[in-house]
Amino acid sequence: MKAAWYEKQGPARDVLIVGDMVDPQPTTGEVRIRVAASGVNPGDVKKREDAFGIGMAYPRVIPHSDGAGTVDEVGDGVSREWLGRRVWCYGAQSYRPFGTAAEYTVLPLPQVVPLPANVTIDQGACLGIPGITAHRAVHVAGPVEGRTVLVQGGAGAVGACAVQLGHQAGARVIATCRSESDKEIAFRAGADEVLLTDEKLVERLKVAAPGGVHHIVEVAFGANIKTDIAVLAQGGSIATYATNVPAPEIPVWQLVFINARLFFIGSDDIPAEAKMEAARAINQALEAGWQGLDIAERFSLDEIAKAHEFVEHPTKPGRVVVMV
Question: Is the pTM of this model over 0.85?
Answer without folding.
Answer: yes
